[in-house]
Amino acid sequence: MACRIILASQSPRRKDLLQQVGLDFSIQIANINETPLLNEKVEQYIQRIAMAKAQTIAKQQPDAIVIAADTTVTVDSEILGKPEHQQHALYMWQKLSGRLHQVKTTIVIAYASQCWHDTVTTDILFKDLTDEEMLAYWQTGEPLDKAGGYAIQGRAAAWVKRMEGSYSNVVGLPLFETLQLLKQAQFCASKSV
Predict the structure, then answer these.
(1) Which residues belong to the active site?
(2) Which CATH number covers residue 47?
(3) CA geometry: angle 139, 96, 149, nearest 5 deg
(4) How many other C-beta atoms are found inside a 10 Å radius of the C-beta of residue 60?
(5) pTM listed for this prediction
(6) DSSP 3-state of 179
(7) Domain count of the fold of the chain
(8) For strand 26-27 and strand 5-7, is the pairing parallel, antiparallel, or unpaired?
């Protein structure tokens, strides 16, 4: 008997990525506080948030396999979250302009009080950005709900000079690693039925 799968995310990009690989799942949002703690390192932050999302839904749905993730953009060890307003977006893009930065995602799969997790890092090099390019991009509305204020699958693809690592990670969910963890959880679920 197959265990049902829940994606603990409201991200349309994560939903699209899982549908792209043919996964059958439902969505349940974990309402948690995603504010970074004082002096919290990037990896600690995304692991804490992804784990909190997974465990919140797993407690409510103990018979399901829960997929949760948290993605952030980082440069100079600074977490660049979702832009709060135009000036915030411009600040982030000025930091990323002509520089190498990292997109990090922690994936957590929770089932029957067990958790499996992995953290994936992708390196991105942006071209030098002009004020006109940044302002025009802001006007599209695309940056609003994206870590680092950009969508690699959208217009910001034109800013990427080089990428090393998982493309789906930058979109919001590293598929290869997610499916590997899911296999472990499904194996465990099949043994407990």
Answers:
(1) 70
(2) 3.90.950.10
(3) 40
(4) 13
(5) 0.92
(6) helix
(7) 1
(8) parallel
